[in-house]
Design brief:
By secondary structure, the protein is α+β, with helices and mostly antiparallel strands. The protein has 1 helix and 3 strands. The model has no long low-confidence stretch (mean pLDDT 91).
């Protein structure tokens, strides 16, 4: 799996953990637990990259760091 920076935080409004991938615009997922949000965002990263390839869009190179908040 390619390593992109992931930021996870609690959203009181959504009552869920939100996992965002700043390097991939619009790439985010949520989950009832921290771990669930992380699992879900890994799926969304894969789908984001697959969709970008299908549409012929550029895919940013990962900075190679993970951040857990």
């Amino acid at each position: 799996m390619v390593r992109y920076e992931v930021i996870i935080y609690w959203s009181a409004e959504d009552k869920a953990f939100i996992a965002e991938v700043p390097e991939l615009p619009g790439c985010m997922a949520d989950g009832a637990t921290y771990q669930e949000a992380l699992v879900n965002v890994k799926v969304v990263i894969k789908e984001w990259i697959e969709t970008a390839k299908e549409l012929g869009r550029s895919i940013p190179e990962p900075k190679g760091r993970l951040v857990f908040a």
